[in-house]
Amino acid sequence: MTAPCTIVIPTFNERETLPGLCAAVREHVVGNPQLLVVDDQSPDGTADVARALGCDVIVRTGQRGLALSVVEGIARAKGQIAVVIDADGSHPAAVIPELVDAVQGGMDLAVGSRHVPGGRIDADWPLRRRLLSGMAQLAAKPLTQLSDPMSGFFAVRVSALDLERLRPRGYKILLEIDARHDLSVAEVPIEFRDRTGGDSKLNVRVQLDYLRQLGSLYRGLLL
Q1: The total number of structural domains that make up the chain
Q2: What's the rounded Cα separation, in Å, for the pair 169 and 210?
């Protein structure tokens, strides 16, 4: 992995888990990557923790949302490749080199997928969450080439994106990116785990945002 790389880490109240993620990234990613934390004004002091860990930090004001944070992080990335990873410990930082290698090898987008051979979910999800996840995947299927468009773990060639085309909403930025671009894609199997700390951001508002996002994408497909 030789191309300059930026690790975009969107955060909200992740002071407990951020140190472990940063340590894991630095263990597995060579070449001194830029660690860029994009924080939604966390009241728990996540931004201060990020600075103490040597990360570049953007503190966003205005409308909150993971998708908005990711887009701003990609726009401000210094690297030719941006890797987006959750701060909660659910994504394996050890897979970052595989994602970056896929982009260096010619792909525009490489996704850490739970749903390709070798991928799995190692999480104690209640039945309701498993059903919601499955329904969300099914609803997005006509819009995307991806097996796991709900993934929040991916690497993308920054120059392949037209950020002005995006209409970021809620949490599912990967679906937005793939549906609004014609990208070459690779999928890399990952083991998705339960968060190692903090609280889940999945709530009714997030689910409604996803439905609105689907409506916007389907309108774009039909018009």
Answers
A1: 1
A2: 7
